[in-house]
Amino acid sequence: MAEHASEAETEAEDRTGTARGAGRVRAAHGRPARLLLGVAAIVPLLLAAGALAVAPDREPAAAEHVATTASPGPRSLACHGPLQVPDEALQTGGDAALAVTPPTPSVSLRSVAAEPASSVLFGEVSGSSTRQDAEGAVPAPAITAADAEGEELPGDAASTDLGIAVQTLRDVRTAPRVTAQTSEGGRPVADAVQGTWTASGDFRSLSLSRCAELTTEASFLGVSTQTGDSSVLVLSNSSDRPATASVQLRTADGPAAMEGRSQVVVAPGDEERVLLESVVPGEDAVGVDVSVLGAPLSLHVQTTERDGLTPGGAEILDPLPAPAQELVMPGVDVAGTAPTLVLSNPSGSTVTADVEVLGADGAASGASPAQIEVPAGAVVPTAVEGLADGTYAVQVSADGPLDAVTRSARTGKDLPGDTVGAPVDFTLVAPAPALGTHAVSALPGQGATGALTLTADEDTEARVIPIGADGAAGEPIAVDLAAGATSTLTHEQLRLGGEGAAALSIVPEVPGAVHASWTQRQSDGAGGVLLSSLPVLPDAGDGDSVPVVLTD
Predict the structure, then answer these.
(1) What gap in Å lies between CA 441 and CA 466, rounded to an integer?
(2) b/e per residue 164-196 (b: at least 16 CB within 10 A)
(3) Vertex 355, ends 354 and 361: CA angle to 5°?
(4) What is the pLDDT of residues 126-170, one digit of tens each?
(5) How does residue 19 score in pLDDT terms, banded at 50, 70 and 90?
(6) Could you give the CA distance from residue 353 to residue 287 in angstroms, rounded to a whole number?
(7) What spatial distance separates the first Cα and last Cα of the chain, rounded to whole Å?
(8) Counting Cβ atoms within 10 Å, is residue 219 exposed (0-12), middle (13-18) or buried (19+)?
(9) What predicted TM-score, i.e. pTM, was given to this entire model?
(10) Are 211 and 79 contacting, i.e. CB atoms less than 8 angstroms apart?
């Protein structure tokens, strides 16, 4: 038994040893197997790399250079709409005889647009014989006007073969938007003016204002917040994006404390109003500065004045041009009342201004104020005494940038009753920037019954072309301009075949030397004159195409 057991153990050990040997053999053979698999995986990569190494180099394809032009699109101009006084000003007492009469709820609208190649922009009147469509008609700009909801207002624009279109709309009871484009859909030389006229009543007044593109910066000057007067800043957002406006008021004592009302948020499609007398009451002349973040806005100021029960006039004010050291305000009307020059200093240091009043014969002796010091951030009104009745230009030269307006007024006939005095209407004459090579200005839609006043920085000439409501043009009028003097063309001199002018084209001989303004003098039907004015603005010069080249 012992022998059998020993043999069994020996046989088991042999089987175990054989098994262990076999295990060692399998382990020894496994490492080369994995190495072979790794080599097999690398070989395709090496072959691919070799193929890349022997492949011929390819030169990069040359980028195609594309040249085109980018042209400005149509011009879009936002108008302010009728005069809207605060609700508090319309509240009445128990006496029906003293009820407040609201202002006229509508405006007239006159728009003009010219093709950039129109001869009237070059001081000539010549119909085109080369630019014609398939039917033989000369292309003309298109003008459309829409209400606040975007609905097009009825009324076609008229044109002739001069490449000019004119549109006249009356009784517009909204804040319209004017779109003007060339015959090819580009940007024309264009202007649009609205007028609101209230012949009698508590808000007896005439106000002309210009429809303008939206903006992010604006300044206004010269409005009153005295007892009985009301001035409101209007901010309108026609876009689908919100805007935040920073508002700063200026007074004779400098920048006003806004007390939490310096930031105004204007929601998309909404309008906000800032009542200025609620911030700075009792001021003869206030300045307003607005800076906008976000969507650009349509900005204007409405101001009305009353002395007890006596109407004192009203105006709708456009933004002023940028502050400057040289400012010229043509068309200052003087008729028994001394005008008032209002200066505002937006800088942080005192500015000194020299003032000169210019008439048809040159400087008006004895009428110009002495040097005026304008403290930092302050508004300074100064009466300009000693002027005979007539039309003047007020010129300001300063050692720093200023804002300026000149207030002139007309007194009407006495009103019936012992408690009501003679009504007054006023205008705030804004600076007129120097004209470049040409300018086109629309005239009031209710009829141009005033005068064009021009002044120049040097001896030169300007050619003025009256444009009719049908798009036709009168003969050019050559106006000789002496440096430091004014020249005036009345509405009678600007008539075309018995009809009043609807617009003007002005072409200076020397670009940058001429300033011009239109002063409207309109009868109130009771022996009085209503007054308003507009500067003639130079062409913005943004209608040219811009070459665009795409390169690598």
Answers:
(1) 10
(2) bbbbbbeebebbbbbbbbbbeebbbbbbbbbbb
(3) 130
(4) 976 546 666 667 789 999 999 988 999 999 999 999 999 999 999
(5) very low
(6) 18
(7) 100
(8) buried
(9) 0.85
(10) yes
Give which of 171, 162, 167, 196 is closest to 180, Cα–Cα.
Answer: 167
Alpha carbons 92 and 90: distance in angstroms, whole number: 6
**Closest listed residue to residue 299, CA positions, set 213, 370, 368:** 213
Contact 432, 330 (CB under 8 A): yes
Predicted confidence at residue 23, as pLDDT, reads: 38
DSSP letters for 97-115: GGPPPPPPS-EEEEEEEE-
For residues 307 and 302, what is the distance between their CA atoms, to the nearest angstrom?
17
Residue linked to tokens 């900005």: 299
Mean pLDDT for the stretch of residues 274-292: 97
- pLDDT bin (cut points 50, 70, 90) of residue 352 is very high
Spatial distance between the Cα atoms of 289 and 393, rounded to a whole number of angstroms: 25
Which residues, at least 6 apart from 169, have a Cβ–Cβ distance to it below 8 Å?
108, 109, 110, 145, 153, 155, 176, 445
**What contacts 294, CB < 8 A, 6 or more positions away?**
241, 242, 243, 244
Mean pLDDT of the 262-282 span: 97
Q: Across the strands, what pairs with 245? A: 264, 292
The three-state secondary structure class of 31 is: helix
**Which tens digit of pLDDT belongs to each residue from 80-132?**
999 998 777 676 544 455 568 899 999 999 999 999 999 999 999 997 654 66
∠ CA 11-17-22 to the nearest 5 degrees? 130
Mean pLDDT in residue range 181-209: 96
Report d(CA 474, CA 504) in Å as an integer.
10
Nearest residue to 444 via CA among 526, 534, 515: 534
Structure-block tokens of residue 295:
């969507």
Strands 514-523 and 450-456: antiparallel
For 24-72, the pLDDT digits (tens) are 333 333 444 443 344 344 444 444 444 444 445 566 665 565 665 666 7
* Opening angle at CA 420, ends 416 and 423, nearest 5: 90
